[in-house]
Amino acid sequence: MNRHSTVRLTRREALQAGGAFAAGALLERFRAATHGYAQQPTTSPAERTVAFRAQIGATPIQTEKLADNLILLSGPGGNVVVLTGPDGMLLVDTFVSPAWPKLQEALRGLGTAPVRHVINTHWHFDHTDNNAPLHALGATVLAHANTKTRMSQPHHLAILDLQFPPSPAVALPQQVFKDSQGLQVNGESLKLSHVAPAHTDTDIYVHFEKANVLHTGDVFFNGRYPYIDGSTGGRMSGMVAGATTLLGLADDHTKIVPGHGARCTKADLARYRDMMATAHDRVSKLKSSGKSLEEAIAAKPFTDLDDKWGKGRFDGDAFVRIVYSTL
Ligand SMILES: [Zn+2]
After folding, report:
1. Among 18, 27, 78, 119, which residue has the least CB neighbours within 10 Å?
2. What CATH number does the domain containing 246 carry?
3. Does the global pTM surpass 0.85?
4. pLDDT tens digit string along 39-91?
5. In angstroms, what CA-CA distances link 204 with 8, 263, 264?
6. CA of 227 to the centre of ligand 1 (A)
7. Do 122 and 204 meet the contact criterion of CB atoms below 8 Å apart?
């Protein structure tokens, strides 16, 4: 046993303890939102995933009319948009699996037509969990080719410290595309287009062109710091570029549905894009000047932004961690 190996061990232990503390602190924030989980000790990433899914799934569904045949459902997962009409229903995203009974009830409230089309904005569980039961009832699931690939693999999501096994074959998209795809359903004209690696490498937006409604997927979190999934190709620079692309599709009357957060306008998206560009530049400077992750967090680069953006899932320190790791 020499002195150097003792030093290395101590440093590694310290790093592990730091990582565990950060994950634990985040989990405490998840748990605080739902009393039921406050006393349940969870230890492994797989167990945390079960708890996280249940916590999200417990949220009620709220309904908002966007147009005569377009409805926004929000609550237990990423925002869902439903297009109704004689061709059957079309859904953009599907909530988490524990919300399936509530989703069925909400859809029954919109009419008796079956769901014929499902679109996934990206591979994450809170957008794709109900692919399988919707497909079993007759829907075809459409997504970017990378969504099918990513869903077919096991993943560990950094920062959140969640573990996902490969999805069963019945949950995978039946149709995929690479760059963009048009769709004519219920008198509406939809444009689906890939956003280069941003929140993940699977992201698409869905533009309902006649109704002037834009579902951005998780490239846009309204009013809060976003999650960026570096483990499946997400990049901070792509988030800024993606937000700029989305801005170019919107006019002052566009109803914008973010992946998470309230329905909003082009002005809200512009504020988010500006915040993201600022965050990108500040953390880039810290990283390129040689600052470690912990030093970058200690520099508190987002203190002037935290009041507006740091009250969602991630505070300023957690967002520095996300940005630094996806530059
Ligand atoms: Zn996501």
Report:
1. 18
2. 3.60.15.10
3. yes
4. 445 579 999 999 999 999 999 999 999 999 999 999 999 999 999 999 999 99
5. 44, 18, 19
6. 7
7. yes
